Amino acid sequence: MSLIFFAQTMFGNMFAIRTLRKFRGRALISTSKLTIIGTSFAFIIAAETFFLQNHPRIAVFVLVISLIFLQLALHVHEQRRISLLLRGFPVFLDRWILNLRTGMSTTAARDRALAATEPLLRNLLTPLITASDGVEKRRHRLFSEEITSELRAIQNQNHNTITRLQNLRANVRRASDFRRKSGQAMRQSAIQSFVLFVMHFALAGFTFWRTGWKNADLILIATALTLAGALILRVLARRIAWTI
Amino acid sequence: MDDLTPPLLTALRDVRWQLLSGRSTKEAVRNYAFKHSDALASRIGQLWILKQQGTLNLAEINWPNFHQKTFWELLERGFEGQPIVEPLTHLEDEVESVAKHDLDQHLATLPFKALFPLLFLQFPAFVILLIGPLLRELV
Description:
The complex is a heterodimer of chains A (244) and B (139).
Chain A: H1 2-26, H2 31-51, H3 56-101, H4 106-115, H5 119-130, H6 145-156, H7 161-211, H8 216-238
Chain B: H1 7-20, H2 25-35, H3 39-53, H4 66-79, H5 85-138
Helix pairs in contact in B: 1-2, 1-5, 2-3, 4-5
């Protein structure tokens, strides 16, 4: 029994460390936050295996669910972080334009705007706008190829900078406004699907607890129907009849 | 978040942006056609190739809507060296306004469309879970 206990703790921690390392590599969640999450998770894994040591199957199930939850929670947190950082980008452009209009050179104006930007956004922007042409050409974590190539072009060609930055800012704002509006449809369907999933799994869990494996086929059919419904809902939400 | 921007709006933004960055209309159209994979981009790409070969017959093209036709006509003017950034900006405004109207209509009808999977798939799933085990015990 103690061997199972040891293996569960070891593998659980190894998976958790691997997941956390992957997120640290992307540098969108701070290391201190990941350390806190990692420490709490190590404690949760130890507690799970300790309290469920007489039920190894349940312990493995709980452990797998916890690991999936960790991955999902970090992913959601990262996406929230990305949307917050993207909101800061037009503000950075505002400051850059303002500095240029008050008579500063392109580089000085950019550096002053960067200095006033949030540290994480600054770290992600710096290699993009300070690298010479041909450097750092791989896909950026936050920005589309259009934005990165335009920022590089502004950096490398010192003419018409204010107009180009204003165009970039206008494009970023317009695209984000439209995306927010079109995202409403997806959000509606996602919320509906989420609520139905929670209700379905609660009911499936209750049925399984009451009747055990003999109704597993019914649970499977119901799960397949719920999944199919969510999939069709997603397709319906995405399919917009454009007249243009 | 999923990007549901209509292809024509993406095309207009891309081409206009490239023109503002100092590229010629030919370069902008070529870059746009190679970069995107939607139906409009491949159509523009084909027309671009036909135009390069000198075999493009405008009368034979069957455009799905007036806005796409106007877009191509503006590009034709750009190929001839005329300035098209301003007309493209106006077209983009028009297209965005139509797209917003389409989106509003979609959002208004979505709750009714969402009823079908709910009624025919997800509700039966709940019924199966609730009544299925009971019926099985009775039988």
